[in-house]
Amino acid sequence: MKAARRVVTLPPVLRGPDALRFAADVRERGADLLEVRTDLHPEGTVDARALAAILELLVSERGTPLPPAWVAAARWVDRDVVHAGDLAAPSGKLLASHHAERALSTEEALRLWDVALPDGAQVKHVEPLGPVSRERVAVLLETQARLRERLGEGRVTVLTLGDVALPVRAVLARQNVLDYVALGGDWKAAPGQRLLADAAREARAPSPRHAGRLGIFGTSIAHSRSPRIHPQPFDRIDLPEDAPIEAVVDALLPHYRGFAITSPFKLRLARHTGASLDAINTLVRRGDHWESFNTDTEGARAVIERLGARDLFVLGDGGASAALRTVAAEQGLTPRFLRRAAISDPLRGTGIWTWPDRITPPDALRFEGARVAVIAYGAPARRIATDIRQRGGTPVLLGAAWFIAQARKQRALWETST
């Protein structure tokens, strides 16, 4: 089956020329369709014909009726089978949709589609994910398979919504016609959409040699470079800090062969998987269970060797600190691990900053000429480096060294997954 066509929704703040620039931008980044919804854009705020000249248009009726000019310009016309006055659309353009208010059984979902549809109509079925479990994912996949069997290949899209829905949507996308994705930034059209960049990268990649996907779990990880260097398909799974991560990884066991784990889930998943380690950063599928590892020790070793100091302080005491402890013990070092509440006097010498960018350091933190290694990379690393300078320190950017060292080991481990 062909890869799902990637749909990006026009944000409500974009009108006129800004909307045209957005359409051109997402086209260059790999989008196949631009969605314009009547609940987000009143008639007259966008030029549907001009947008359609840049990127094929999908127009969606949400409450307010679709303007005739939008329908004329569109490749697909989305009308809700429950709330639309009728399902009228020009021949070959109808996308009939249903948005369930709760999680459904497969039989309940199939009954909703006991409706007469015009020849060639597409079908979009949407449900909230609800509590995540292996059984719940199996139900959604069964609903998708049964709808495809009833309606035929190339007509069905099944979506799910929720704070932890992203990896489930990625699994469903492999048999969907449409994949609704987000460009990135602060706005998404629906909770659980994955990034356009990740979906486009997967579509360009050759068929994987191994069954199952890869992904990275964390909070605020849109900057992660893991998808750029690891085998595809690879998903950035950005979840809230209080997400039920344990239930999520268990539910995904049949569908993913491995995960990278970053802040804030390293400690929780170490406990959940019964690891002998305080923190983990890697999961590898072994038959019917996950095996956990901490390849951060490879990154910690690279950073400590680059710094070349025998006396170190470490800012933070989370998942990265566990790897630093292990390597320091191997090398006969005794770093000082400093939590935020324990910092009062200015720090000298050489240190390592392990706090994620989203964590605010204590006001009392000051340096007196200290060299401070930053193990983040990209924009977060630059922000941390600025903070270090403002507090009297000299940042040493070693995030790439840490990242590459641990990623090499991760990749070798994933190659052994079963």
Automatic annotation (TrEMBL):
This is Shikimate dehydrogenase. PANTHER family: BIFUNCTIONAL 3-DEHYDROQUINATE DEHYDRATASE_SHIKIMATE DEHYDROGENASE, CHLOROPLASTIC, SHIKIMATE DEHYDROGENASE. Gene3D superfamilies: Leucine Dehydrogenase, chain A, domain 1, NAD(P)-binding Rossmann-like Domain. One of its GO terms (molecular function) is shikimate 3-dehydrogenase (NADP+) activity. Coiled coil: none annotated. InterPro entries: Aminoacid_DH-like_N_sf, Shikimate_DH_fam. One of its GO terms (biological process) is shikimate metabolic process.
